[in-house]
Task: structure prediction
Amino acid sequence: MSGMAIYLVLMALLLLAALITFRFFVRGDYLRNGHLSVFSSVLQALVFFLYGGFPTLYLQTDWPQSHVNVVLRIAGWAGILVGLAILWAGVFWLGLLRSLGRQSDILKENGFYRFSRNPQVLGCGLYIVGFFLLWPSWYALGWSLFFIPIMHVMVLTEEEHLRRIYDQDYQIYCERVPRYFGIPKR
Result:
């Protein structure tokens, strides 16, 4: 089996694992408990770590050197650094427990959450685009594109939970603030 075939099979298995994790375990915890169990939190983290580790499958011989021009190198590192800053700022602003589906006493609508309902996903996306710019290949493109369905399934699962908790307040928030990015409505 070729390297690309193995890569695609592993990505398909990871996508299936993400679907099962988010739509079965995470969603089930939200429905039963109103928050994530330790088991679902660990599964969710495992999906993210496995996804994050995928570049090691195709960068083994060229890591960490990048052979792109200076413009792509600057844009790539900017995407990585800005993406990580947004990702971690979103986690800290929202709070780690709230990021794990706990402490849902009030709906956070300020900070980064005034501009995007999912700033952590945006930050992670910028990181991935930066990575693709630094080490462009068909493998990196596939890795980047697989981010979209994995994160979207997670976001849809969280939105379902937030609608149950916050009802009309969340609906109003959704009408005002874009899911990922765009211009918020006043």
The first helix runs from residue 3 to 33.
